[in-house]
Write a structure and sequence with these properties.
The chain is mainly alpha-helical. It has three domains: about 90 residues, no CATH class; about 100 residues, DNA polymerase, domain 1 (Orthogonal Bundle); about 160 residues, Intergrase catalytic core (hpI Integrase, Chain A, Orthogonal Bundle), CATH 1.10.443.10. Helix content is about 45%, strand content about 5%. It has 16 helices and eight strands. A three-stranded antiparallel sheet has the order 1-2-3, covered by helices on one side. It starts with a strand and ends in a 31-residue tail after the last helix.
């Protein structure tokens, strides 16, 4: 019969007493100051031992028994797991795996990699690497010894170092997904990351609450960029950005095989897509001027930008920074926000991505329907497209001029009468 009693008369802790798999009486220190908690442990272990004697104890049953126990001290968890593993082996089953925080996180990333896009996989691995580095020695403790405070400290450290709030929330979301899988597989009693809230996605930089918007280039600036570009590859890459609205990494990796010269179309798979959706290719028509530019190469195979495709987009020698130097040489002005913290990013109002805004805005000013712009830009929703749309002054002036002209005839000396209802009266106020 399972029972619980104090370790010593004056001890605040109880022992869990039960019959083991061989029928002998076993006493297990529980580090519990509550008799009922210690008794629950004793009952659960006696149940597991009984199954072991009947050779019916399996991994699935053992996980259910472990999940039924209240949160335990890490040392007690290891003892309970060790006992249950011995009993499972006596039943001819496979023992429960044990994980440290480091072991679980790294194995989770490795298991996810085959089903993820390369960039997503790299992002997950970066989050896990940063998290384990922040944990230090705690990363090598039992997975169930991980605390909510450890995860909260990691999130707050990212913000203090200058990481944007949106990025910090992505880090937290990744950890929630990682530890949710551990709960499902019975290695973790509850998801510690769920105890940490996301933070408001405002700018992590001092000053404005919101990060300033990307500005599109005007047409004169695009022409300056093409003229100033130091090589044929950069000139043509800029032209691709203007005529297709594509992202820098996607365009730099293009090959001649992506071009259907007969149909006059460009087909490629954007790297940035929703993780929950199946990757899909984007096919858009190629501007006649850009198509003529490509034909002059006289090639149909290989990379269109053989030098630039070998470079990363980010980093001190990446394509983004090289393009910014071209902007500076072209005399293009833009706004800048300084980075906050050692890991913060300097923010610019213009960059290669501004060409994407330029393309969309020019199409909008030419009255191209938004549905068509969505397909050309490869965007998922109208809300996203709205953020890329800037109407010029003349387009807005033409829109305003569509309103009917009011007549101001007569001498205008009539007396004003109080309206019967607000709904029946249109009030026009003039400055």
């Amino acid at each position: 019969m399972a029972s619980a009693h104090r370790y010593l008369d004056r001890s605040p802790y109880f022992l869990a007493c039960f019959h083991g798999s061989d029928g002998d009486r076993v006493q297990l220190p529980t580090k519990c100051s509550s008799r009922s908690s210690a008794l629950n442990i004793a009952l659960a272990l006696e149940k597991a031992a009984s199954m072991a004697r009947d050779r019916t104890l399996s991994q699935a049953k053992a996980k259910l028994i472990l999940e039924s126990l209240a949160p335990l001290n890490a040392t007690v968890i290891q003892r309970v797991r060790k006992l249950i593993n011995e009993w499972i082996e006596l039943s001819g089953g496979d023992p429960l795996s044990e994980h440290t925080v480091r072991g679980w996180c790294l194995s989770w990333v490795e298991n996810r990699e085959p089903s993820l896009a390369e960039e997503t996989s790299d992002s997950y691995r970066r989050v896990i690497t940063e998290f384990l580095k922040e944990l230090g020695e705690k990363a090598d403790r039992d997975l169930n010894d991980l605390s909510v405070q450890c995860i909260k400290n990691f999130r707050d450290k990212q913000i203090a170092d200058g990481v944007r709030n949106k990025t910090a929330n992505f880090f937290l979301k990744t950890l929630k997904t990682c530890f949710k899988a551990a709960v499902k597989q019975g290695y973790l009693r509850y998801n510690r990351a769920e105890g940490v809230d996301q933070i408001e996605e405002r700018s992590a930089y001092s000053g404005d609450e919101d990060d300033f918007e990307k500005e599109p280039f005007i047409l004169d600036e695009v022409e300056k960029l093409v003229v100033t570009a130091p090589s044929r590859e950069w000139k043509e890459l800029t032209a691709f950005g203007f005529y297709t609205g594509g992202r820098l990494g996607d365009l730099a990796a293009l090959r001649f095989e992506n071009i259907d010269f007969a149909a006059g179309t460009l087909t490629f798979t954007p790297r940035k897509q929703r993780r929950s959706h199946k990757l899909k290719s984007l096919t858009i028509p190629v501007h006649v001027g850009l198509l003529d530019l490509i034909r002059k190469h006289g090639r149909t195979h290989g990379p269109i930008f053989p030098t630039l495709c070998k470079r990363r987009v980010g980093g001190k020698t990446g394509l983004s920074l090289l393009f910014r130097r071209i902007m500076d040489q072209a005399g293009i002005r833009y706004k800048t926000k300084k980075a906050k913290g050692p890991r913060g990013r300097r923010v610019y109002s213009k960059g290669f991505h501004s060409l994407r805004h330029t393309t969309n805005s020019l199409l909008a000013n030419k009255n191209v329907p938004q549905e068509q712009r969505l397909e050309i830009m490869g965007q998922a929703s109208l809300d996203v497209n709205d953020g890329y749309t800037k109407f010029d002054r003349e387009t807005k002036r033409q829109a305003i001029n569509q309103l009917p002209t009011l007549r101001f005839g007569g001498k205008g000396r009539g007396k004003l009468k109080a309206p019967k209802s607000v709904e029946s009266t249109l009030l026009l106020s003039t400055p």
